[in-house]
Amino acid sequence: MPSAFLPDRAFVKIAGPDAEHFLQNLITTDLGALADNELRPGALLTPQGKIFFDFLISRDGDSFLIDIRADQTDAFVRRMTMYKLRAPVTIDTQVETGATVSWGGAGGGVPDQRFALAGTEVRRQPGHVDDAGDREGYDALRVLHGVPESGFDYALQDAFPHDILFDKSGGVSFRKGCYVGQEVVSRMQHRATARRRVVIVSAETALPASGTDITIGGKQIGALGTVAGSRGLAIVRIDKAGEAINAGEAILAGEVPVTLALPGWSGLSFPTASEEA
User: Fold this and answer.
1) Whole-structure pTM over 0.90, yes or no?
2) Is 119 left (phi over 0), alpha (psi -120 to 50) or beta?
3) Which DSSP state fits 272?
């Protein structure tokens, strides 16, 4: 069973009689739809609707476990403590650091909803499990299924939930009540103004390094994020990409010709000229 240890993850437990109500009014995930044995993406947004902190969230009895980047943990706890005021809620950083992910068969941990949408079972649990490998296999799996992560594919406070497909992966709700930044992302949803999306980038040769510009006719439409051999992820302007695809115009990553594909599980397609009009 393939597995990987991710040393750059940490965990925050949010507990107390008002924990669910507290989180439901702050984060993008609809906790009413979060099953007991499920891991969903989520975010705390800026008032302008951009991703301030991103994480994975699961139920832990009557509490919630936040799987977050280790370098963001302290800042996240401070921000959540600021919102807590006198609510009967506790916010505690867990001793366990690092996460183990496994795929391709039975394993411990909680199923990751992001991969389940693509028909692949990936389980995730805190700590280091014996024989867990390095992250290359996991990153290749993310690329294959179009699952982006901050620090590799986008910068925090620089991306909207739509950019990273949270509107398709269950990471953002448009039906629950207000939360921080909700007005902006709801407007993007109802006006269909999202133009930047995660795509899978493929080439006939090895792709250049992460951060390389993706261009059409010398104009940038995005940049490479995670790279795994001849495949990678990028957030690009899909309207510009659609124009190029329809016109048969070359799309380049650096000097390398590439093709772009939206993740099949997203249900999205590149806009045509008539749709843009």
Assistant:
1) yes
2) left
3) P
